[in-house]
Amino acid sequence: MKLLFVCLGNICRSPTAEVVLRHIAAREYPDLSLHVDSAGTAGYHVGEPPDVRAQEAARRRGYDMSSLRARVVEPADFERFDLILAMDRSNLAVLRRRAPATWHERIRLFLEFAPDLGTLEVPDPYYGGPNGFEEVLDLVEAASRGLLNHLRARARAA
Ligand code: 4NP
């Protein structure tokens, strides 16, 4: 199963989701075989490591984002990844516009996998205060467990 997380710049939300899901999957879902990546719909930060504020917030919870580098979503991603998880409706709309209709079903909002959160969007923390990065981590941790439970249930039913 190949998962791609997508936000705008690929330096805050989607790289956070990439490391958090990978970390939780390795410890709590060793039965699942996953390939996890992230990308942005915009290219402002291509080649850069994640935002230092995101890295520091993640490190305080035991996640290491330092080796990641930002990239842009490319046309081949729509075919290569089984599930493409957008952080908000705006990025979801951009992805659906860029992807051939054949692949639209695999493009979803990440927070659909955590319905109890009561929100479908991970707010962009880039221009906000430090609390925004904690909120991103809270939402991403909950949705990662929701998605991993969904994938495990699906694997068991198959
Ligand atoms: P991200 O956050 O989409 O979560 O990586 C942002 C990063 C950069 C910008 C906006 C949002 N920017 O405008 O440069």
Question: Which tags fit this structure?
Answer:
158 residues; alpha/beta; 4-stranded parallel β-sheet; binds 4-nitrophenyl phosphate
Brief digest:
By secondary structure, the protein is α/β, with parallel strands linked by helices. Helices cover 42% and strands 12% of the residues. A four-stranded parallel sheet has the order 2-1-3-4, with helices on both faces.
What does this structure look like?
The protein is an alpha/beta fold and 158 residues long. Helices cover 42% and strands 12% of the residues. It has five helices and four strands. The protein has helices spanning 13-28, 52-60, 77-80, 89-98, 131-157; strands at residues 2-7, 35-40, 83-86, 107-109. It has a four-stranded parallel beta sheet with strand order 2-1-3-4, with helices on both faces. Helix 1 (13-28) packs across helix 5. It starts with a strand and ends with a helix. The protein binds 4-nitrophenyl phosphate. 4-nitrophenyl phosphate binds next to loops.
Q: Spans of 5+ residues with little confidence (pLDDT < 50)?
A: none
Report the radius of gyration as a whole number of Å: 14 Å
Q: Overall mean pLDDT score?
A: 97
Strand arrangement within the widest β-sheet reads: 2-1-3-4
| CATH level 1 class label | Alpha Beta
Secondary-structure element order, N to C: EHEHHEHEH
Shape: globular
Write the CATH homologous superfamily: Response regulator
Q: What is the CATH topology descriptor?
A: Rossmann fold
* End-to-end distance: 13 Å
Quantity of strands, as a count? 4
